[in-house]
Structures
1.
Amino acid sequence: MKRFTHINATSAEHAVSCLQEYKDSSYVIAGGSDLLGCLKDNLWMQTPEAIVNLKTIEGLSYIKEEGSTLHIGALTTLTEVAESSIVKKLAPALAEAARRTASPLLRNMGTLGGNICQENRCWYYRYPSKLGGRIDCVRKGGTKCFAVIGEHRYHSIFGAVNKCIAVNPSDTAPALIALNATIKTTKRTIAIDEFFSAAHGAGSTILDRDEIVLEILVPVAAKSAVSAFKKIAFRKSIDFALVTCAIALEKDADKITAVRICLNGVYNNPMRSQEAEEFLLGKVLTEDIAKEAGEIALQNAKSLFQNIYKVQLAKTLVADTLLSL
Amino acid sequence: MAKTTENILPSGEKEHVTLHVNGEDISLLIEAHWTLSKVLRNGCSLTGTKEACDAGACGACTVLIDGIARPACMLLAREQVGKKIETIEGLEKNGQLHPIQEAWLEEYGAQCGFCSPGFIMTTKALLAKNPNPNDDEIKEALGGNLCLCDNYEHIILAVKSAAKKIAKGGK
Ligand SMILES: Cc1cc2nc3c(=O)[nH]c(=O)nc-3n(C[C@H](O)[C@H](O)[C@H](O)COP(=O)(O)OP(=O)(O)OC[C@H]3O[C@@H](n4cnc5c(N)ncnc54)[C@H](O)[C@@H]3O)c2cc1C
Ligand code: SF4
């Protein structure tokens, strides 16, 4: 790892002032499970000068229910989210997504805030500089995407954003989208549907460089509401998803009255399937309806040469997740 | 707001810190980018904590931080000041192996042994939380530790045997 200046932030304002002082050459560190990987591999074109530690700020780690909203501090670890009885009861899709993320050891350090802000895992992007030099692809400010012409079996099946076909790797992101969460930062409150943006270059969110996620808010839905999350990966543990799917729905006398479906691992940003949602409204859930919803969710897929299998995985996962509700 | 200067360790400079490892305070000079696994191995001569993947993906470097199992290669040493750090070296007391270590020997939990310190530390955290885990709970809890000898069956037997030993009054 290259040298950097390390600052233990004493408050969110202090952290923001440090980020402003070091401008584009600083990052915050939460659990560090993603950031240290990036630093060790020296993958960015500009090596950061300063790392600002958020763990020394008090009061950013909590899970509480207030009124009809679940409040989760950005520094709450994924283990805490996965094991929380409140999250399991009020937002089962989120608890399950956290439980399926990475490995127990990484969940013990990885935070929910870090999980939704993590960098993409494209193997060209992440290529370690010590093995023959860094790969400066489009996403980092270079000119070419190496995955399109190279190995793209884990990449986007819905096309590119700014020529990049890397997928968003976060497991909690689709759950938070299905549950219609809101993100509170040091600057503003952002609806989760607007939060993720691969169009911003490196990084996967619309956050400004001097902006920090403080809290994740999940509305507590009506009593009849249910939610679920499913992940397909090669291994049960320590493995990023090939495809994930999270669904939240409400029923009235067996008819679906509200539904939000989100896939991840299929596109640069987590992807809501609004056509499938519209199709499901007013319907009674059966195996055929669930399968059709899967077909509809993937009808606009444009897979590449090596990743066509992911289309079938995603179709099946949408149907399976629906049928688990 | 505390002054920035008190909380900052500039790039390239060293800082005196005290790490609390296995019940002892160890004074060290560290740099900002040094990981806990490096400092344990090179600064504290505690080489039981192994470094294999150096990416948080294998669990060989697992240590307990305030009782929670975490990969030491993904932790900055500077961020562990004030915390209780436990490594494999802290388990043996007065020449007496810890029951988990005994179980590892008796059940052949180790083949080459490189992953054992990490597995044993994860097991310690597991048994503190769940003293009598079933097979599925053991598999889930040890899901962040890899054994390249593929000795998992023996490792699960060792965890179960350790649980029994501890229930009988070991520590
Ligand atoms: C071996 C391995 C396997 C993994 N598997 C998975 C997986 O299966 N699924 C998955 O989703 N992830 C996985 N991860 C990725 C990731 O490490 C974790 O998901 C974790 O949640 C990241 O959180 P963190 O607190 O450690 O983030 P950090 O590493 O501290 O931060 C990640 C990024 O987010 C920024 N950031 C952190 N907190 C904030 C904040 N509050 N506001 C603004 N920006 C912030 C940081 O600057 C950094 O750029 C894996 C990682 C490893 C090493
Ligand atoms: S997919 Fe994106 S991150 Fe990967 S090589 Fe192409 S531009 Fe870079």
2.
Amino acid sequence: MKESRLWFWHLISGLALILLLGVHTVIQHFDSILTWLGFIPQAAWQSGGHLVGSLNFQHAVLPRMQSVSMTAVYLLLVVFGLFHGLYGLRSMIYELKFSAKAKQVVGVIILSIGIAAAVYGVYTVLAGHLNPPLGG
Amino acid sequence: MAAKDNDLGIRGWVYAGRYSLQRYAYTLQRITGLGIILYLLIHLYVTAQKNAGEAAWAGAMDAVQPLHIGEYFLFLAIIIHACNGFRLVWAEFGLGLGRPIKNVYPYQTCLDRNRIFFYAILAVVFVLAVVGTADFFNLIRVL
Ligand code: HEM
Ligand code: HEM
Ligand code: HEM
């Protein structure tokens, strides 16, 4: 793909990530506020040892795995997050004085990491949704 | 005349030359960006353990427990990168920079005009940081 087009998608993915990572960050980091607002059950704080609030398996993680909208958010977050982050990493490396050949090698390595991580991430999210553990 | 060698090499990642405040925001943008992408790669593996059930999830969470404070710094990195990134996307699409002006003394650059946006972003980061800090260290008890 043309470089300018990739860069354009870097910006678009950045905008998308505000929403996607915004949702994720609010869920993970403002969980006492979310409980107060009623989005997370009180029970998430009463069981599960130190894994309370948003990290509680039964009352927070499992329900999110079963939710269609959260599954969609995570699928998009995997893809946009990896593209945006790895393209950013590649841009920084390409600023250095490497030969065209070396840059090509770097490009292929980063692309491979991206594809492998995307396959793994998409699989993780889908498997969790379609086949939740403990019969959920 | 030979062209001036402007290439800073790897030093260019952190040193901006004689540029303004915003150029250092850009440096911060890169440091935080790198931190987040590194985290994401590890994160995908750690959170995947949820699919193996509650015991595996607890095991994975216990294993990363010593790094828990790192999550707080990651949170700060995310809000800085997201807010400043929002400002950069606007600038890169050429929005909010005003009309081009003649270059007469006292010189004014687009960066001067963008500075208000920059301070607004700083304010948003500050508010989010306060709320996030309170939540992370359990300083507020709303329950
Ligand atoms: C600091 C804060 C973070 C915490 C505490 C956190 C926590 C979690 C948890 C507990 C899950 C499991 C799924 C769930 O509970 O709903 C998860 C999944 C996920 N997170 Fe994060 N996360 C953080 C930051 C990030 C960042 C910065 C990114 C991306 C750039 C990200 C991307 C993802 C993705 C794509 C998934 C889905 C993969 C899966 O379900 O295994 N997270 N996160
Ligand atoms: C939350 C929303 C986000 C927004 C609005 C955003 C926006 C931006 C913008 C505008 C740039 C500068 C690009 C340029 O000027 O060419 C950038 C750079 C970067 N971002 Fe993000 N980003 C976000 C999230 C992320 C995430 C989740 C990651 C990692 C997974 C990440 C990794 C990077 C990296 C490594 C760079 C450096 C690239 C460079 O300087 O050329 N960003 N981001
Ligand atoms: C051919 C013309 C231009 C190109 C190719 C261009 C390209 C870019 C790029 C790639 C960035 C990303 C940040 C960076 O790399 O440091 C940027 C940032 C920016 N540009 Fe331009 N630009 C152009 C003209 C202008 C003009 C005419 C203005 C002002 C009216 C302007 C104002 C800005 C501002 C305020 C930023 C944000 C910088 C920061 O806060 O870090 N640009 N531009």
